[in-house]
Amino acid sequence: MTTDAPLPVFEQLRLPDTGLTRDAYTYVAGATPDFIFHHSVRSYVFARAHAQNQGLNAGTDYDDELLFLSCVLHDIGVSEEGNGDQRFEVDGADTAAAFLRERGVEEQRIAIAWDAIALHTSDGIAGRKGTEVALAQAGIGTDILGIRRESLPPGLADEVHALFPRMDLAYALSDAIVTQAKAKPHKASPMTFPGILLRHHLPYGAHPHWYDLLAAAGWGDKPVGVSARRRAETPQQVGAMFTEYLEAGDIEGLVSLYEPNAHFVPTPGTHLVGIEAIRKGPATADRQGHPPQARTARHPSGGRRRPGVEHRDPHWRRPRAGDLDNLRDPPTPAGRRLGPRGGRPVLQLERGSWIGWSIDRLCL
Q: What is the pTM of this model?
């Protein structure tokens, strides 16, 4: 039934005011938590602003009513009513389609709304599915992640937030999606957006990632080329791989453990930044004629060291198994010594401290 009661917000925010848009507004207000309802309305306002920035005109370049419906209904899949057995985006698209169909909306328009809702988390796809679909995703992305927020008209965000407060939307919505996924894991298959969220809330290894799926495929495929390098997923794996590559003299293996902008100090006064510089560094930066391996110093001070200050003696040796065993333990607070004292190597997980290969920014 169409809502005839006055809705001042339609005038304040210049929302498309039709019986259908009022029905959708009222429906979502009652079916979803306030943080989702507020987000859904703001998403339309931001989508319309993006349309204006692109020189698009409502009624000629896009269907303004349909854009509003797509935005306002886009998270209905996170509601109790919309919580089916599919990923929340598809459940929401089906629920919205049923809502629109009951009100006599043409199937062609329903199909556009379905795409906008089902694809609103699908970067690179939504933008190719038509103007309303692309605009809806743009508005939703602005409200969640701040994408293109700098292009909004001055004061617009403040105006809409005064009427529809954020209520910690980004985290509240993420938690709601995870809650659904924990209760129904089939709603969050590993490579979907809900699956990625769910993985962050489960113990390591409980929810597979892409390479886990490949390993379980049963075809016996093995890594080749660049992919042949294993990637550390936990601090324990970093330690084991670091030791393995170090003892093998495998510079490429060691380099593979670092982030693109990692810092490497092979000798006092030599500071290399970036994987390419690190790869070339050991061969050219060694000042004492030693093999271009990552090296470990015996500690002349009986284990004491000042944070960020290198302590070495001239008696270098190639590292042996056990020198880096401490890296196999979970990380400790910055600055805490991880290695044994009494002349044995000591490593610190602290910005600026190092022995040989920096462990400041190993990839995880």
A: 0.65
Q: Among 23-27, 91-95, 234-238, whose mean pLDDT is lowest?
A: 234-238
The beta strand positions in 98-153, using DSSP E, are none
* Structure tokens, 141: 């992305």
Same domain, 189 and 252: no
- pLDDT given for residue 245 in this prediction: 76
By C-alpha distance, which of 300, 305, 292, 295 is closest to 350?
305
User: What is the C-alpha to C-alpha distance for residues 318 and 315, in angstroms, rounded to an integer?
Assistant: 10
The CB-side HSE value for 171 (13 A sphere, CA atoms) comes to 2
The CA-CA-CA angle for residues 200, 206, 209, to 5°, reads 70
Q: Is the dihedral of CA 72, 74, 75, 76 positive or negative?
A: positive
Whether residue 212 lies inside any domain: the answer is: no
* Structure-derived torsion over alpha carbons of residues 269, 275, 279, 282, reported in degrees to the nearest 10: 20
* Backbone torsions φ then ψ of 101, nearest 5 degrees: -65, -40
Domain end call among 198, 233, 256: 198
> What is the domain extent for residue 22?
8-198
Report, in this order, helix, strand and coil percent for the chain, each rounded to 5. Answer: 50, 5, 50
Highest-pLDDT range among 48-57, 237-246, 274-283: 48-57
Residue with tokens 């004629």, as numbered in its chain: 289
CATH number of the domain at 130, please.
1.10.3210.10
What pLDDT does 88 receive? 97
And the tokens for 191? 């490579």
Q: What is the pLDDT of residue 205?
A: 80
The number of domains in the chain is 2
pLDDT greater at residue 343 or residue 96 = 96
The Cα diameter of the chain in Å comes to 87
Separation between Cα atoms, residue 117 and residue 172, nearest integer Å: 19
User: Residue 238: is it exposed, middle or buried by C-beta count within 10 angstroms (0-12/13-18/19+)?
Assistant: buried
| pLDDT at position 321 | 46
* Cα 256–Cα 260–Cα 262 angle in degrees, nearest 5: 90
